[in-house]
Write the structure tokens for this entry.
Amino acid sequence: MFLTLNPYRALLGAANKRHPRLGGGRQPTCLGINACSGSVLERGSPLVEAYIRRVTFDVPAGAYARFMGRYSEPLAVRFAELAHVRAGDRALDVGCGPGALTAQLVDRLGAGAVSAIDPSASFVAAIKARFPEVDVHSGVAEHLPFPDDSFDLAFAQLVVPFMCDPVSGLLEMARVTRQGGLVAACVWDHAGGGSPLTTFLRAVHDVTPGARDEAEVAGAREGHLAELCEAAGLGNLQATTLTVKVQFTTFADWWEPFTLGVGPAGAHVAQLDEGSRDILQARCAQLLPAAPFEVAASAWCVLARA
Ligand SMILES: C[S@@+](CC[C@H](N)C(=O)[O-])C[C@H]1O[C@@H](n2cnc3c(N)ncnc32)[C@H](O)[C@@H]1O
């Protein structure tokens, strides 16, 4: 299968600038120039897989809310508490999606003190409608459209795995945060089996041995998020985990959001034929407890200083 890679050209082509405090000059190491230049690449190459990870968030905000928002909204409450977000600070939500964390920042700081950015057109439209007074941008972490030292706090909730170049993205977050300000990121524990997708991924492996999955993505294994932050020159790292619990009344309540095409998991289900989808669904049902049941999801979390 071949795909033409155009839509992210404007967003990623100019990615990355120098970081004055860190003596930057780092260049993005993936996607960006090649994948955004309109060339035709073969499905399965790392560049194309990176692209697919991005476009699978061009879905309605309501679909995202049903699929991931039910986990990311309670996570955002815990993340904002952990970061001690206080009135008077200016904050940036990188990869804001439809606004799970933005909502927490607005509650604590007021809409005028919050900026948000995401490459997904549908999410940007949704967040603008939801928070008209928030400064919302379309763009990527690797090329933030803000001057140096614009914020006291910069957050990336569940975004690092989707960045073209996570170290460049974190480095940009540090650049736009004042010296000594907070740069905070969290990523689901896919590798340790503690993510909202753990049962789904196990079922995918059971029915498709050798399948690749999100366990391999940036920041998903213990210690990796801290390593990425260190590589971006961040200091005073504090690593912890945050866990949220979500209730499901029926199996259908759990399964149906996987059919909405959201994220890599949704994209995987969408490309299956009906028979394969039924097999995967049945395997998920076998692996889950009888309804009603609870899913606990844990995220690796790092708080660091710019
Ligand atoms: C799992 S969602 C998280 C959304 C939101 N932060 C939340 O917690 O619900 C990942 C988000 O990262 C965005 N994204 C993908 N690539 C990105 C990049 N290079 N820079 C910033 N955001 C990106 C996607 O559009 C999507 O909204």
